[in-house]
User: Which sequence fits this backbone?
C-alpha cells in the first residue's frame, strides 16, 4: 500500500519529538518536510531542536523551515516551565550538520504541496499559526490537503487555563481559521491525549532498546516526567503517567484504528473572556451546525504503546 505523504508542523517539545520519530519510522507515511512553530519555545529554538532531532535520527535529508515568529495577533507565550530552557531539556542532542534552509515555512508548505502529485496530510503539534497563514495565503492549495490532524484543544477542560489547552490558547485566531477552513480536520485534544500515558516501566523498556535514539528519547521522557501535570483530582496513591499529547495526532494518521473519533461541530473562543482559547465542541449537537471536525475521545493504549516501542526499535536497524 502506498505511503501517505505527510508534512509535520511542530514545536519540539518533548512530545513533538516522539511524534517526529514515529513519522520517520513508520512504513505507512512518508515525511516530505517539516515546518516549525513558536510555542513550546521561541521559534529559533524549536527550529534548532527539529534539526537536532533529524541529526539524531540520521535524516537531515528532510527539509525543515522555520514558520511564523509569533501568533497572528497576540504576543507569544512559551512553555519553558514544561519543556525547559532549550525546549528539549534532559538530553544531549547532536548538532545538525546540514545547512539550514533559507526558505520560509509558508513557502516550504506551498512548494511541497505544489510539487506533490498526490494529496498530503498535515500533522500539526504546536500552535496553528503556520497552518492558518498557509490556508489564508494559498487557498488554491487547500484541495491538495488530505487531512489536517492536529493536537490541541479539548471538549472538556484545559491545561493552560481551566478552559483552554496550550496550543490553541497561544493562537486562538489561527485555530479558529483552521477548523473553519473546510479542509478535513481531526482534533486530538486533552480528552484523548491525557489517556495516552507512558509510565516509568515504559521508559525503562525504551531505554533498554539501547540505540542512541531510544536512549535519548528515554532521557527526554525522564525530564518530561518531572514537568508533566497531574490532574487536580487524582486520587491519593494514583500514579499518573506522562501525557503523550502530540504523538496522538501522528499515530492517528499512521493507524486510525488506534482511536475513537467522532464528527462534531467545533469553533474556537477568540474573545477576551475567561474562556479565551477554548475549543467549543458541540458534543450533544445542540447548535445543529456542520460537524466540521473529527474529535478524538479514546485510544487503544496497548496498541499505542506498541507503536511507541516499534518506533524506538526501528532505529536499531
Ligand atoms: O497541551 C499540549 C501541547 O502543548 C503539546 O503540543 C505540547 O508539545 C505543547 O506544545
Ligand atoms: Ca507540541
Assistant:
Amino acid at each position: 500500500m502506498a505511503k501517505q505523504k505527510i508534512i509535520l508542523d511542530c514545536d519540539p517539545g518533548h512530545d513533538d519529538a516522539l511524534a517526529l520519530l514515529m513519522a520517520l519510522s513508520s512504513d505507512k507515511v512518508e515525511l516530505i518536510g517539516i515546518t516549525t512553530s513558536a510555542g513550546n519555545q521561541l521559534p529559533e529554538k524549536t527550529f534548532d531542536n527539529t534539526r537536532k532531532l533529524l541529526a539524531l535520527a540520521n535524516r537531515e535529508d528532510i527539509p525543515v523551515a522555520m514558520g511564523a515568529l509569533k501568533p497572528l495577533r497576540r504576543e507569544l507565550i512559551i512553555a519553558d516551565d514544561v519543556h525547559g530552557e532549550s525546549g528539549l531539556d534532559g538530553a544531549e542532542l547532536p548538532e545538525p550538520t546540514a545547512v539550514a534552509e533559507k526558505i520560509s515555512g509558508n513557502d516550504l508548505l506551498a512548494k511541497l504541496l505544489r510539487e506533490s502529485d498526490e494529496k498530503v496530510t498535515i500533522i500539526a503539534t504546536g500552535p496553528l499559526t503556520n497552518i492558518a497563514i498557509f490556508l489564508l495565503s494559498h487557498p488554491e492549495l487547500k484541495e491538495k490537503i488530505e487531512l489536517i490532524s492536529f493536537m490541541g484543544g479539548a471538549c472538556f477542560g484545559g491545561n493552560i487555563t481551566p478552559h483552554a489547552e496550550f496550543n490553541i490558547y497561544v493562537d486562538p485566531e489561527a485555530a479558529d481559521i483552521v477548523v473553519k477552513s473546510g479542509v478535513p480536520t481531526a482534533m486530538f485534544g486533552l480528552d484523548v491525549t491525557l489517556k495516552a500515558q507512558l509510565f516509568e516501566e515504559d521508559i525503562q523498556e525504551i531505554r533498554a532498546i539501547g540505540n542512541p535514539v531510544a536512549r535519548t528519547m528515554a532521557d527526554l521522557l525522564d525530564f518530561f516526567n518531572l514537568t508533566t501535570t497531574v490532574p487536580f483530582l487524582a486520587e491519593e496513591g494514583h500514579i499518573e503517567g506522562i501525557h503523550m499529547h502530540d504523538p496522538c495526532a501522528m499515530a492517528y494518521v499512521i493507524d486510525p484504528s488506534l482511536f475513537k473519533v467522532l464528527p462534531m461541530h467545533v469553533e474556537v473562543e477568540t474573545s477576551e473572556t475567561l474562556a479565551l482559547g477554548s475549543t467549543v465542541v458541540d458534543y450533544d449537537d445542540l447548535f445543529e451546525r456542520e460537524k466540521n471536525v473529527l474529535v478524538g475521545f479514546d485510544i487503544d493504549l496497548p496498541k499505542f504503546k506498541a507503536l511507541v516501542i516499534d518506533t524506538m526499535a526501528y532505529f536499531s536497524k
